[in-house]
Structures are given as structure tokens and as C-alpha cells.
Amino acid sequence: MSKRLTCDVVVVGAGMVGAACAFYAARAGLDVALVDRGPVAGGTTGAGEGNLLVSDKEPGPELDLALLSGRLWTELAESLGRAVEYEAKGGVVVASGPEGLAALEAFAAEQRAAGVTATAVGADQLHELEPHLAPGLAGGVLYPQDTQVMPALAAAHLVRASGARLLTGRTVTEVLRTAEGAVRGVRTDRGDIHAPAVVNAAGTWGAAVAALAGVSLPVLPRRGFVLVTEPLPRMVRHKVYAADYVADVASDSAALQTSPVVEGTAAGPILIGASRERVGFDRSFSLPAVRALAAGATRLFPFLSDVRALRTYLGFRPYMPDHLPALGPDPRVPGLFHACGHEGAGIGLATGTGHLVAQALTGKAPDLGLAPFRPDRFPEEPV
């Protein structure tokens, strides 16, 4: 066994959210150890598209967290922007018919009242924004605050900038607790790490880490596929998606759902999503899901019919029943903090999450109220 380590806080999970928690905790003056059974960004983060979105969030706690996170991403982009392929390219949400457009514009009006910049785009203006869009669309909304990063790069650079002790290839097997029940560190398959605080940033596996501390957290995997095309000149300027994507994100259905989401990247390939289904941790290839993605993308951008898809990959979004993450201290176990359950928004919400968790760790009043994100807001289940 390795020599026992001691620090101020152990962050479990070296994905984007864990990296952000380590970064902001270290910036607050804490000695941080970041632990993962795999490599940095080896789970959901490495399978993500890197979206930092406000366009798909209705007014409420998640949108507030997204706006805070967006401001923090903008600050980070001043030093890390090029290294993490940060692109402030904006998003365009399109509607195929008048009824869908009316609903989209009503949704955008509510978002504007909450601080989102959203500009109505008429049918005759869509092709000024996206020249290769299909003809006949009713209109859309432009969201200039939507941005993108390359998620694996972003996580790696935040870990490096944090100065945290990075301990990969270590599986956490137990959350250590005092006789009074408070956290005193974690046990791994390569030795103990002692600390008065543990942050559960294990993403889709957040329920398993919570269970190691004796509490329940209803995080479930929601599988999604992404198609990646051959490298192209910049044919898609924004993140572009159909208005029904918002409804799919908010859905509680376990069945397969797909809605077209298309975006270019700094490296050239076009990324095509988005599918959602709850099938546990089944990593099987799904031809129906991938076919549906391709069909939806070519409806939005007909030129894609002649473009080769080089590969597809899948990941598991950490789904929560009310679509809000668990964030902050767990009143059931002193010293246990959670930062997981962001579903498909973890990359975008990571900075705000890390910032708020660091404030909680250091006893500062949080910039956002944490009550909607309380880890104990769900009925207790046996662990």
C-alpha cells in the first residue's frame, strides 16, 4: 500500500466538474487531492461535445447556474481560451413551422427576463447566419452566449492550473468516517487519503460514491451517441439545433429520443447529436440511434448527405429525476460535498459548480442559493 496522504479536501472524479472543483478549491487556498480510477476526462467528459449553453435552459436554478458558469468560463478563456479550443460562436435554435416558432419565441422571452441574450431571427435571416441550412424553416432564435470548448483539453488544463495532487488509477473503495459520522478521508485500492472534506464529483457514478458514505443519491446513466464527420471547412458557424431538443433534455422518458444538433469544431469535423435513452451502462452500438442522428442532421443541413461520418462515440449523462445536479454539502454526512448529476450540461456548469463548492468548503456565503441543489432533497433509499 502507498504511504498515507493528508490534505484539506479529496475530490473524487477527474472529469470536467471534478477538475473545476479542484481548481477553485485550490484557488481558495485549500490543499487538494484529485482522485480517479481512470485518467483525466476518462468518463462522461471525454464523450462530450463541450457545449456551454444557456439556450436550452428554462428560467430557474439551472439557468442561474449556467449564467454564473458562463461568466467564469469567459474569465478562464482569457488565459486558457486557445489551449482548450474555446469558441464564443453562439447558438441558433430553429423551428420548422409557425407553431414551433411561436413556442420557441415565447420560451426565449422568458429567458430574456432572466438575463439571457436571445434575438429573434426571421426565416429570411436564417441563411445570413447559416448559409447551408435547409430551406423552408419558419425562423429561429440566436443565442450569442452559447459557447464551446474541447472538454478533455479543458479538464486537463484546469487540473494542471489547479496544482492539485492528481492521483489517477486509484479506485475509491470507502469514504472514511469518524466515530461521530463525519468524513475523515477516503480509502483507495492504493492507500488511504485523509482529509476533513470529500467532494463527490463522480458524474454518472455519483450514486456509487454517495453509497460509500452511506447515503443515497438517485443518479442514473442516460446514454447518448455522437457522430463525427470528416474534417471540413467551416460549413456550420454556430451550434444549431431544432427546437424540440429542449423538450428532449427535460423529458423523463427512458425510451430513445433524438433531436438534431449540429455544430462545427475548431479542428474541422462536424459533431452531430443528440440522442438520449436510459439503458443502464450498456455500451452496445445502437444503429437506430445513429441512423436517427444522421437523418435529423441532414434535414437541417442537406449538404451532410454527401459527407462521410468517420466515427461515432457514446457516453453516459448523469441523469437526476428533477434535472438538477446535487451540489454542495450533504447534511446527512458532515464533511461530504456533492458536485454531480448535471446530465448533459456538466461541461457548461462545471465552473459555477466548482466555484460554489469552493465557497461552501471555505465557509463563504455562496453566490447562488444552494437549496434547489440539496443532495438530500429526494426520498431516502436503502444503500
Structure description:
The protein is α/β, with parallel strands linked by helices and about 375 residues long. The chain is built from 9 helices and 20 strands. Strands 6-7-5-15-16-17-14-18 form an 8-stranded mixed sheet. It has a 6-stranded mixed sheet with strand order 9-3-2-13-20-19, sandwiched between helices. Helix 1 packs parallel to helix 9 (about 345-360).
The dominant shape is globular
Using the CA coordinates, give the radius of gyration.
21 Å
Terminal residue distance: 28 Å
Oligomer: single chain
How many separate helices? Answer: 9
Give the percentage of residues in beta strands: 25-35%
How many strand units?
Answer: 20
SSE string: EEHEEHEHEHEEHEEEEEHEEHEEHEEEH
Helix content: 25-40%
Low-pLDDT regions? none
Structural class label: alpha/beta
**Largest sheet features:** 8 strands, mixed
Salient structural properties:
single chain, eight-stranded mixed β-sheet, alpha/beta, 383 residues, six-stranded mixed β-sheet
Give me the secondary-structure topology.
Blueprint (H helix, E strand, L loop, with lengths): L4 E2 L2 E4 L3 H12 L4 E5 L14 E2 L8 H20 L10 E5 L2 H16 L5 E4 L3 H4 L9 E5 L3 E2 L2 H12 L2 E4 L3 E6 L5 E6 L2 E4 L3 E3 L5 H7 L7 E10 L9 E4 L1 H7 L6 E8 L5 E7 L10 H14 L8 E11 L6 E4 L6 E5 L5 H16 L22
Parallel strand pairs: 1-12, 2-3, 2-13, 3-9, 5-15, 13-20
Antiparallel strand pairs: 4-8, 5-7, 6-7, 10-11, 11-12, 14-17, 14-18, 15-16, 16-17, 19-20
Helix pairs in contact: 1-5, 1-9, 2-9
